[in-house]
Structure formats: structure tokens, C-alpha cells
User: Fold this.
Amino acid sequence: MQTVKMVITGPFSSGKTEFIRSISEIEVVSTEREISTPAERVKDATTVAMDFGRITVDDDLVLYLFGTPGQRRFDFMWEILAEGMLGFVVMVDSAKPETFREAKSILETFRAYAPTPYVVAANKQDLPDAWAAEDLRIALRVEDNVKLLPCIATDKESVKNVLLELLYSILEEMET
Amino acid sequence: MALKGELEHFSTTQLFNLINLARKTGTLFIEQEGKQAQISFREGKLIYAQSGSQDGQLASMLHRAGKLSDDQVRLIRERAGTTSDKQLGLLLINAGYVSQADIIQSIQQYTLDVVYDILAWSRGRFAFEDNRMPPPDRITVPIDLENVIIEYTRNMREVEHLEKELPNLDFALKFPDRPGASLRNINLSVEEWRVVSFINPKNSIRQIAKANEMSEMEIRQIVYGLLQAGLVELVRPPRKDDPQQSAARRRRPTSQQTPQVKKTVVNKLISRIKSL
Assistant:
């Protein structure tokens, strides 16, 4: 049995858990606990260990999706999760400019962990305050050769599109 | 799509950079502690600005530039009635009071004065309205935003802000690939040109500073201005020079750094996800 891994990362409350939940064939295993600080009280619980989803391809191949803990104080987990990953997705809450700097910093950190392909998912595009993907590219200074994809993490088709684009990028890199 | 938020999280220079690079057309509304300002852009160029109680009308601009006296402005305000700025401009040129160049220079200077003031706002809400233009009777003069940003950042002294915006001096710089990005029409200082002459993906910002005998503050200020003006882009340095990356690699066995996955596996994953 071969297993491959992709990591879903991004700032607190950017939609990582929802992203994995939308596509995983198993109930997402996540260790959540109540939020401790007022700044993080956007939702009732946050991921302190990791989200874990699975997509079985056949008897010999399984894809695992790992979501990183959203809060910076758990970033010791990031490098462990990044080990051996095939690629990664950086989730950004398109309606929260206050998280863009953090998203950029997380992106750079993961790029430093491993030279694997990645895509940026401009999440929550269904919200009225969401910034357009092309504006986010400039705001986050994402290079032109990196895919920045509009996304709604609660929509399975949108999540499929992000993962497929990441896989196409991985394939392209293998061919070069 | 919305382009709105708080200046605390996305500064005025970052906004100008975005508007410039995305070649946006519309009006940026900013509100700070009761003060209001609006700045209009056409295809990424600054064309109009108005702030607070200033009326932003031609007579006021010419008065401010010393081209009209107090009495002349008073007369215009009393008698011109509903005359538009464009009509008034023509009347003043024909009457020999001002030249066309006076009008253009006065409008540019007024717009820049307003904008440099607004660029210093660090708090408040902003919202950009696509395709919203200033009143049609106003005379608009296009101004390149690159020069505005560069000029503003030259006087920036907020060390903390610069460190936050440019935390890693081990990055290198490159010129952007986008069409239209050019240094030809930009007014760079000698120090800025010295930095520009070293731009190469192989040279880290730190190395450029060393070569030019600049302090971290000086190089940050110049690079920040060039970045915000969209004249350069950050690139990762060659991996051997990247301490963060090297450290990460050292901590892991080589076998764990890049998974040995075949193309057939990726193709299988693609087919499976498509079928979900």
C-alpha cells in the first residue's frame, strides 16, 4: 500500500478544516478545543493538533490530507506535517485582509520546508467582502507562475478544482 | 468584488501598489477619525484627489498655487455660478490670466499634496469602488503612481513598519516580467539607482546593502519603495544561501525531503479526484 500526503495550511479560521471535510471520504479526524483568546474567538473551537482526511484511490494507493493547526503557537507541528508531502495548499480568507500578512508568512515558511509545488486558495469567495483573486495575488505578492485559485471550501466541486490544479502542477514539475 | 478593509492591515502604499499593478479604474474612499478623502484612478494612474473640507475645484487649486489672487478667487466664486472647471479653465486661459501649463501644474501639485497627506494615514477604513469617477466637470491630470510611492517612501522613517514589510534581507530582487513595468520614467535618487544596478536574483538584499555600504534601515527603505511602486519583485535566493531552508533540510533525512512518487501515481490521484 502506497500513501501520499498533501498539506492544507493557512492562517487561523481560513477554512482548512472545511476544505478537508468537503472532500474526505472519512469523517475528518480533528482535535479541536475551545478558543482561549478573544482575538481568536471567531469560532468556538480551533484545530490544535491537525485535521486528517483520506481519499482512497484503489487497493494500493491512498491520499491523506493534513490540515495544519491554525494558531501560531502550534507551529512546531508544521515541519512535522510538511515532511514527505507531495504538495501543499495555502488557504486564505479572502474577506479578511488582516490575515494576509500571516498567510504570506505561512506560505514562505512552508516553501522553506520543502521545494514541493503548491497553490494558493482564495477561500470564502462567496462572501460579499471577499477580495478578488487577482487582487489577492498582488496583496500577497504571489508569483505569476503560482496558481491562485478562487475557492469556497464548503463546496466540494471548488475543493476538487483546487486539489486537481495542485496535482497538475505536481505533474508539470515532474515533466520538467 | 470588494476591495475594502482597515488601513491598519493593508496600508495606503500597499493599496496604491495594488491599484497600480492591477491598473484599476475607480475611486478609493478612505475615512479616518471623521476625516474623509477620495482618490480616483484611471487604469492605475492617479487622476484626482479630494480630502476633508477642501472643495477640490480649479479656482482653489490655482489660488493655492499662487496663480490667482484672493480677489480673483472671490470674484470667480461670486460670479462663475455653475461654470464647470473645464469651462473656467478655458475662460482663464483665453483671458490671459493663466496658461494651460499653469493649470496642469497646479492640479498636479494640489493632487499630490492631498495624496501625500493621505498616504500618512495609518488607521481608518477604506473601500474601492470600481469605475466610480470624479464629477465630470473636473479636470483630471494622470500621474504615475510609481513616482508618488517612491517619493513618499523616501521620507518614511517607521523602522517597525519597514521591518514588518520586509522581514528577510536574505531575499533577492528581480525586475517584474509584466509588460509596462519600466524604470525609464521614474525619478530615482542616486542611492536608489545604486541599488537598482545590483538587482539580480543572485544578489540578496543584504549583499546589495553591503556592496553599497548602506545600513539595514537605508536598504529597507529603498527596497520597500521600489517594491511598493511595483518596480521590483522579491525572489528567493539560491537555496544554498537560505539559512531557513538549509536548516530545515539538515533536520530531515534526504529520503523525507521529496517523496519518490511516479507520474502514474499522480495520474491515478487526478482520475480519482475527478470522479468524486
